[in-house]
Amino acid sequence: MGRVVLVTGISRDIGRRFARFAAADPSIDRIIGVDVVPPRGDIGNVSFVRADIRNPVIAKVIAREDVDTVVHMSVIATPGGSGGRNAMKEINVIGSMQLLAACQRAASVKHLVVKSSTTVYGASSRDPAMFTEDMGPKKLPRAGYSRDVHEIEGYVRGFARRRPDVRVTTLRCANVMGPHVVSPMSAFFRLPTIPMVLGYDPRLQFLHEQDLNAVLRHSVVNDVEGTFNIAGDGVLMLSQAIRRLGKLPLPVPGFAVAPVGSVLRSRLRAEFSPEQLSLLTYGRGVDTTRMRDMLGFHPTYTTGEAFADFGRSLGLGTSPGPAPVGGTA
Predict the structure, then answer these.
(1) N or C end of the chain: which has fewer CB within 10 A?
(2) What is the pTM of this model?
(3) Mean pLDDT over residues 78-94, rounded?
């Protein structure tokens, strides 16, 4: 029999798109999507169950549907769409704790896939050139999305110790980019003029939205466990990315990036969180050797190609330009 996969966060576009994508895999028998509100758009053969992962009722859903694989995607990066920072933390941290508790009690669960983020490494002037999965941030985050991701990964490691019979796969994904992505980073690059922190030109890595779906499905159907950095090959400097969009940079002091962005964004919803501001100051690079050699996944799009596809969706020509630092694009 095929796998029975439960996907959290299906009301968000990335959750809905992955669930529908995975439902086409012949090795997956059923996909059950859960969230507090129904997803927008067609979900194909995915079964939707209205459930809140912050509520112990999620355990009943897992037991009733005889779920053997859980894909946790219900982690929110910005407070704007979740009712504020307190609500965001409750969804991210409390929701993850309840979900893991339900998985721990469910004998049917044999595989847990967690979509995490390279944000867990932070961004600072003391960072290494490339973070490997064995490294941590130079300074532990005190608040915000980075703090949530750090706590969630800690709870996931605790779950793995309590249920050693369950394969746990944690995917630390770079910023997802593509024509359908709505995120703080995509909104940032939609600004008519792009703020840059004066004196800095950060390195950026991207993961194409199609590769996100592919790596999640790959993790579901393959018996590989561990923690993996997930990103397209190569990096782009922020200045390169701006040139490829044909836009102009606006160098500003670090303290002025958020207010200037607020003025420029007009009707765009570009939230400048502390994590994003740090990334746009210092940049971040992650080593993906383990992704290729141990997980066995090779992204179709490089960082540069993922960004170029995003640029085309804006109706802007993105010139290939010189090869980005650290690889081809």
Answers:
(1) N
(2) 0.90
(3) 72
